[in-house]
Design goal:
This protein is of the alpha+beta class and 319 residues long. The protein is built from ten helices and nine strands. The strands form two sheets. Strands 4, 5, 6, 7, 8 and 9 form a six-stranded antiparallel β-sheet that branches. Strands 1-2-3 form a three-stranded antiparallel β-sheet, with no helix packed on it. The longest helix has 18 residues, at 276-293. It is globular, with a radius of gyration of 22 Å.
Amino acid sequence: MDELYETAAELPEVDRHDVYAHHTGEDEWERVPYRDSLWTDDGRATGVVSSNQDFYNVIQYGEILETVGDAVDQHSLDVNGRVSVSPTAHKMSAMLDFDDTTVYANQDDPIDLGLKVRSGHSGFHGLKYDVGAERQVCSNGMVAFVSDLHFDQTHGEPFQPGLAYNAVDAVVESPEVIEHRLAQAQNRELLNQDEALLVLMDTGIDRYLDQPVPDLLNALHSEVEDLENPTLYETYNAGTRALTHYTRDVPDYELDDGFESLSRLLETGGSEIPEPEEVGRQAVDNRSRELIEQGDTEPYWEDEEETLRELMQEHELRV
């Protein structure tokens, strides 16, 4: 906890300053009255936002992290974690792991729960709190797969400390909800390995990988027990394995969007997880339009078009 508060104190502070427009032809400068620039206390320009504080409130990273620390301290929990800030300080990502909050996807798959916190100063990023987790067996990261455990606010509102307390309370008090969600996902199966690969590519996490198809295939082979019947949970784990272990020099604040995209494999916005038939069909339809109908897209593998036709036929037979 001491290190958490020390880290909070070290995070950059941001203040508002004027914005000026430059006319290159006339070499003239004029202040833009309806915009403010945001600068860190160590001289980094981090964003341009509305000058009206009814539309944009600066929320300091250190204040967020300190408040989360106070919320964790109320539960008398020990905490470990890491904080990542972009070079221009326009994004901040923090992952805090709580002791004594382990859940079990099954007897051999313990998962340590914590809180994922994200914020930004660019004018495009609000403040988000989500359940975060890490699988003990392979250190795969997880985030944002239960909508009931998501809390956020925009910069249109002053900082709301109560949301941090609500988020910590929700994660600490909801292990049964999380275990139920993960257990459900282990009983939902996609058609085969090819469809699982297409589902992962459809999430967009390929943009973080140097070799998307080989990396995701390796991850599927590591996570899936029966490649002819991959479950949603195994497919999700393959995606998190790829993002956790197969990316190089990609900071946490960039990977956050990838983990969040993956979460739709376990999240519908309600109390149930998605139906694998719908998840698979959507991925197959999207890829079919891209590859077959557009005609100028490189296939992921040889004979992919034939594979897509077979998958589309299988989905039609299921209707």
